[in-house]
């Protein structure tokens, strides 16, 4: 495909010199348009700008300083005010460097000194080529920046849409789980056998622990993390409401505002649910007693403790126990890569879980195991 011949607008009141410029630049592959005054040159540029890229537009301007009417600097100022104006090479017969500085500060792409014989025409050609390349680079840079901004806007819109969808998903999942928990509560209330009632109540607590995470994500500004102190406070309040009589009245929480990812928050919630319900059932055979849940940080590690002041090791094995709660705690501890220990110095029962604030990368864990 043939490249379009660039057009240079030469603004100068010297007709003879204009003809020399036209002959010299035509031989070098340019189309030259002459304007005898600043006003006429501005008219050419405005007309070309209105054509918006149609053949016959102005690609580069060579502008003389000394002309009747508008001089070069005044004309340059008006050219720069035209949207998408072509680059300007400022031309003058003066040796005064202050004119060059003023022209360049006003927006000229280049500056050169002319002579009456046309010996400057090769320099004008070089300056025009440089101005065109500079204009192309500037245009490419602006287009690239515009594309970057557009991409950022598209990404922001997609991210906002994704966040909205995630909130809606968490809202629907939370509602569905809450309905399931309510159905389990109703079924437990109507169950005649104690074993069935206990199993349904335990299942309800496990479902509620998961539902609380989705409720937190739906109401939070951050969909990637859960604040554990708020989550555990709501979870324990659910347990209090679901408990029979006054057995949860002394359930306390002391937790730091620690953020972890939702999957790990679910594991923490299920562990707390299991150990609290275990303490409710077995720690105080003669009634209710205090149960303490505490979450603290030690560097990169988190410590979760569930403690009671009950019978401790003196408790007799309940023949109704299936061991399901212990298996669930063990499974969730594995998910957290947590250690689980019983505190032998505590008079009642105190279970301590230690796990990292953020999960260890799989590659690092595998390397550690291999070594």
Structural class: alpha/beta
Strands across the major sheet, in which order?
A: 2-1-3-4-5
Which second-level CATH architecture of the largest domain applies? 3-Layer(aba) Sandwich
User: Can you give the helix content as a percent range?
Assistant: 40-55%
Task: Give the overall shape.
Answer: rod-shaped
What is the class of the largest domain in the CATH system? Alpha Beta
The CATH topology of the largest domain is what?
A: Rossmann fold
Return the string of H and E elements. EHEHEHEHEHHEHEEHEEHEEH
Q: What is the CATH homology-level superfamily of the largest domain?
A: Response regulator
Radius of gyration: 40 Å
Tell me what the structure shows.
The chain is rod-shaped. The chain has ten helices and twelve strands. The protein has helices at residues 15-26, 38-51, 72-80, 97-106, 121-190, 194-219, 228-242, 262-282, 324-336, 362-370, and strands spanning 7-11, 31-35, 60-64, 88-92, 110-113, 226-227, 251-255, 259-260, 291-298, 301-308, 339-342, 349-356. It is of the alpha/beta class and 371 residues long. It folds into two domains: 7-149, Rossmann fold; 243-370, Histidine kinase-like ATPase, C-terminal domain (Heat Shock Protein 90), CATH 3.30.565.10. The strands form three sheets. Strands 2-1-3-4-5 form a five-stranded parallel beta sheet, sandwiched between helices. Strands 7-9-10-12-11 form a five-stranded mixed beta sheet, covered by helices on one side. Strands 6-8 form a two-stranded antiparallel ribbon.
